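Margin note from the TA: students keep mixing up input and output lines. Inputs are the sequences; the output is the structure of the whole complex. Example:
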Amino acid sequence: MKTKILVIEDEDSIRRFLKISLEMDGYHVIEAGGVEEAMRLVTRERPELVILDLVLPDGDGLGVLKSIRSWSKLPIVVLTVRDDEQTKVGILDAGADDYLTKPFSVPELLARLRAVRRRQGQESNGPIFETGPLRVDLVGHVVMLGDEEVHLTSTEFNILKLLIKHAGKVVLHRQILKEVWGDNCVEQTQYIRVYVGHLRKKIEPRPDAIRLIVTEPGVGYRLLVM
Amino acid sequence: MDDRNQYSMFLKNSFPYLGIVAGVGMIAWLCHLVTPLIGYHSVGFVFLFFIMVAALFLRMGPAILAALLSAMAWNFFFMPPKYTFVIYETQDMMMFFTYFVAALTIGMLTTGLKKNRERYEKSQMQIHFFLESEKFHKTLLSCVSHELKTPLTSILGAAMTMQSRERHDRNVPTENKMLLAEIISSSTRLNHIFENLLDMTRLESGFIRLSCEWFNVSDLVQHVTSRLEAQLSGHLLQLDVPDRPVYFFGDFGFLEHALANLIANAACYSPKNSTITVAMQKNGEHVSISVVDRGSGIPEQYRNRLFEKFFRLPGTPSGGLGLGLSITKNLVELHKGAVEFRNNALGGSTFTINLPYVEPPQQVLESES
């Protein structure tokens, strides 16, 4: 059974190449050019995945996102022209699973869709998490990079644990703050990068090491799932 | 000609004062006619009114003159004994003194009020202009952004999709694959140019906000050099960063962009397989990041134009709008830093970003295990 994907995008030319590359990657593609058509097709066709452009001719993409989110956990990846922090945080806050800024790379889009589907399939995470050379025992608090054990401070471990919990997905600065430092530490945003920097140095020790932690500038961080 | 201008300027400046003298004289004469009706005490009120009107329409100098002159006129022409500056009655003395204080105060307050009103109107105009300008820039940014990026998305998207399909297809001629690679490469370059243009617009509009955080400057250097791996692939990269972290409080994204422009320039303007060195160090009050290339350097006559917007070195292959250095300079200056250029003795150029060093807070220093 091919995975059914709904593409909500008003630009014909973008829809055309999206349809071709998605079908090449094994998806069954349904298209919508606006809000009304999208809402109709979402309920009628029951897609398993949605690609949504923020700017639509007959309404606001963010509204569609919130509307779908209000009754479904369906994975949604948003496409947007705007790359400012506010827009990106707004997209994630409204319930999107991921976003890409235009112009985007097609391989990157396909990889993100795969990651989103994989996350959907994993309802519960076991105590052991692995990605690339990294192996983390979340219960035993043991972190292995290849054959060597890595010693993390408790803050570094907590940040890593949070990134693992949402592996592949962007974790907002705000979420890191709340999880690691608690609700009332707004000023700590200024220090997050320093801690992530130390964590990175430990799990990506060499300059040619795989980048496991990806920075989403101004928005947050995500842990790559290999 | 100059003398005539000076003379007319002098006349123009002394006009208000002459007007006050004439005004006081005229009011004195009018009051003289009606004094039998209103009494000499009330003349003071008429003068006070005159001072207020003068202060409303003229500057502080003429207003004070009006206060002084009217006091003298009232004393001389109206207070007994008339036509002297002497005052017999103690009550009259008090009244005169009070009048004098009131006159000066009214004069100064009224001109003050007028100045405030002018300042308020000026700032309202500035606010209005600012809001209109902000609206314009926001519209420009979002409109241009959307209209330029949408077709580019289609071009890149379609080309990349074609590339995936034809990658393993041996029936497709190699030339086609090369041409497709060209389309993708040029479109990517076009996108970088749009980004630079949009950044320039944002910087020009003045609506840039720094999102500052503490970070290790070595991280910044490593992050930028690994992000530009593709552009640096034809060169030998040498990194020289200290072992101990050097922390800076700034906008990581902006400084990343600033440094990336310098490194991209070095890659563009130095020969293949030459070395590019990126060095970072803390020396006393500054943190410096320098990018050294072994290109042909910058000719003397262009050195003071390097950081101009849209300036491109004549005779160099086209590669952009010439905004890179200007953007770098702007972004670094937003952090109260400066960008320096130096020609290397052994050939090539060195561009250095100097940022003011501030001792990081205890929490940052303690974050290391």
